[in-house]
Amino acid sequence: MFRKLRRIRQALSTSDCATILKKGTSGVLALSGDDGYPYAVPLSYVYDGSALYFHGAKAGHKLDAIRRDCRASFCVIDQDQIIPEKYTTYFRSVIVFGRMRILEEGTEKRAAIEKLAARYSPDEDEAARQSEIDREYSRLCMMALSIEHMTGKQAIELVRDQGEK
């Protein structure tokens, strides 16, 4: 169902992909938007080892697209170093494919926002985080992307550099 990476030598391992997802702070979620146009939106996220979690408003283009077609991809760029003299970039990125779910209520929604809050406010004490979550909870929509396929790729120059070490 999913295409194999054409330049297999540049492929990142599953472990490397997971490391990039854990380290990253934002990426681009791609959905099927209005009138057949792609809809890609930059978002902050948290990765828990099996799914990606996002937050947003309870209405809008993103939710309409998810309700219409839950299939999605999410791209995180780990490195993008421009090398002008070689007319290239030394890049490293991950693309995740899967299905989106809107977490309406309950313990799953609460657990997801707690993961996101801990990720972006790690130095905040637990009571302060919980207070902020409680204040925003009724206006908040949480979404999960269940991962069906994950692929990562890096510039061939980075592959060569690793081989020389």
What does this structure look like?
The chain has 165 residues and is an alpha+beta fold. The chain is built from 5 helices and 7 strands. It has a 7-stranded antiparallel beta sheet. Helix 3 (106-120) crosses helix 4 (126-136). The chain is globular and about 50 Å long.
Descriptive tags:
165 residues, alpha+beta, seven-stranded antiparallel beta sheet
Stretches where pLDDT falls below 50 for ≥5 residues? none
Oligomer: single chain
**Count of β-strands:** 7
Beta strand %: 35-45%
As a whole number of angstroms, the C-alpha radius of gyration is 18 Å
Order of helices and strands: HEEEEHEEHHEH
User: CA-to-CA gap between the ends?
Assistant: 36 Å
Percent helix? 25-40%
Question: How is the biggest beta sheet arranged?
Answer: 7 strands, antiparallel
Structural class: alpha+beta
- Categorize the overall geometry: globular
Mean pLDDT across all amino acids: 91
Number of helices: 5
Biggest sheet: strand arrangement: 2-1-5-6-7-4-3
Secondary-structure map with pairings?
Elements: H1 14-23, E1 26-32, E2 38-44, E3 46-47, E4 51-56, H2 61-68, E5 71-83, E6 88-103, H3 106-120, H4 126-136, E7 141-154, H5 156-164
Antiparallel strand pairs: 1-2, 1-5, 3-4, 4-7, 5-6, 6-7
In short:
Helix 3 crosses helix 4. A hairpin with a 4-residue loop joins strand 5 (71-83) and strand 6 (88-103). With 165 residues, the chain is of the alpha+beta class.
